[in-house]
Amino acid sequence: METQLAPLKLTAKEYYTKVRSTFDDAKFNRFKEILRQWKVALDSNNRDAICALIPQIEDLFAPTVGDMHATLKRQLFITFETFVPAPHRAFYREQLEARQRSMQQPEMSESSRTISATAAQGLSRTTTGTLNESTPGRLEYDLVTGLPLPKSKRPKLETTPANPTVSTFTSLPPTTNVLSASVSDTKASSLSTRACVCAVCQEPAETILAARCGHICCDTCWDQWLSNCLECPVCKQRTRTNHLTKLYLT
After folding, report:
1. Distance between start and end Cα atoms, the chain
2. Would the pLDDT of 7 be above 70?
3. 37 by DSSP, 3-state: which?
4. Phi-psi region at 236: left, alpha or beta (left = phi > 0; alpha = psi -120 to 50)
5. Is this structure's pTM higher than 0.70?
């Protein structure tokens, strides 16, 4: 059984120094970037941003194969929780537990994958060829298991002419065009709604501002974000308030 590791008793400065001595330059720079985003998310009480950062923190401290600092990295990750402010600590722990439960769900067994693949092949066989029982592979496989059916259970279907003279779809009722237009309008409306979602709060935005890099946020999130760091929250390109352009969607 794996021994439960306890958090290290370190001050914030000692913890920062310990991480610096454990990581290489690239990982340590990534750690500093995550800390900066973490502070912004906590100060703005942005739980969506906190949820997005937790997997990045966990992955950052995940040891690699043959890592000589594997135990220390796990301890540093456990110790990170002690520096989460008390109002956010319970939420942080809940998100970690939910992530661990999702990772522990059993994967599909090899036998299940084989049956699924066989069923897919059987379904493929049932949807090709003409509607004639004499055609090899036509409607001779169970759609669930993909296994061959006994001859007594194979359905008897009438033969469909290879080239029918009259198509059943030569004319459509007038309501079809109206229905197609309605579906198109619905899709266009859905796309428009998705295009207006703020990249930070993930909520539909009434006032949309775009940076030079092309990423969009609502005016409130831009004000909060740029007051802490002068860069785009998505691609990290340097951004100023006077770089923002208001978008008008019609």
Report:
1. 62
2. yes
3. helix
4. left
5. no
According to the model, what pLDDT value does residue 69 have? 85
Tens-digit pLDDT profile for residues 211-232: 889 888 888 898 888 888 888 9
Sign of torsion over alpha carbons 184, 188, 190, 191: positive
Which residues, at least 6 apart from 48, have a Cβ–Cβ distance to it below 8 Å?
200, 201, 202
Whether residue 169 is predicted with pLDDT greater than 50 in this model: the reply is no
**pLDDT at residue 123, as a whole number:** 44
Residue 74 CB-density burial (10 A; 0-12 exposed, 13-18 middle, 19+ buried): middle
Which segments of the chain does DSSP mark as H helices, in order?
A: 12-22, 25-43, 47-60, 70-80, 86-103, 110-126, 175-195, 219-226
**C-alpha separations of 85 from 22, 55, 238 in Å:** 24, 18, 29
Between CA 227 and CA 113 the distance in angstroms is 51
